[in-house]
Amino acid sequence: MHKVSDGQKRRVQICMGLLHPFKVLLLDEVTVDIDVVARIDLLEFFKEECDQRGATIVYATHIFDGLETWATHLAYIQNGELNRSSKMADINEMKTSPNLLSVVESWLRSETKLVKKKKKKEPVAAWKPSPLDNSPFRSSRHMAYYR
């Protein structure tokens, strides 16, 4: 497996996950390493599986292309709390926006504006050394981007 691409690894992971029947399937950024055509085919497969099995898929993603016709419901989580939850047909912004991406973008931009308004300068605490400072498991900005 170490010689195959990330997309091929992702396909194997998806196939292994689908070997067992499901009523609820939780997917987190499952299509991130997959090419556009494979992504569309996979989403169509999931849609058919849900219809045939009567199953539910909870799909967390930052990639919104083509989800307008795929999703039946949308949940928007802001700062760890459920901000919005409704049927796609009941989202008023979808009636005037060209796609789901532009709707989500407007929500995120308004969220950013709220955070800037609420943000106050807090006193900076003095830095105290920690026994974990030299640990390889210590969090750093760079580690946030690695998989």
Tell me the layout of helices and strands.
Layout: H1 6-17, E1 24-28, H2 36-53, E2 56-60, E3 73-78, E4 81-87, H3 92-96, H4 100-118
Report on the structure:
With 147 residues, the protein is of the alpha+beta class. It has a single domain (6-117), classed as Rossmann fold. It is 37% helix and 16% strand. Strands 1-2 form a two-stranded parallel ribbon. Strands 3-4 form a two-stranded antiparallel ribbon.
List its salient traits.
147 residues; alpha+beta; Rossmann fold; two-stranded parallel ribbon; two-stranded antiparallel ribbon; 4 helices; 16% strand; ATP-binding
The gist of it:
By secondary structure, the protein is α+β, with helices and mostly antiparallel strands. It is built from four helices and four strands, in the order αβαβββαα.
Query: How far apart are the termini?
Result: 16 Å
CATH topology: Rossmann fold
Summarize the main sheet.
2 strands, parallel
Q: What structural category do the secondary elements indicate?
A: alpha+beta
Determine and state the CATH class.
Answer: Alpha Beta
| Total domains | 1
Indicate the percent of residues in helices: 25-40%
Q: Order of helices and strands, N to C? A: HEHEEEHH
How many helices? The count is: 4
Find the CATH superfamily. Answer: P-loop containing nucleotide triphosphate hydrolases
**Rough shape?**
extended
CATH architecture: 3-Layer(aba) Sandwich
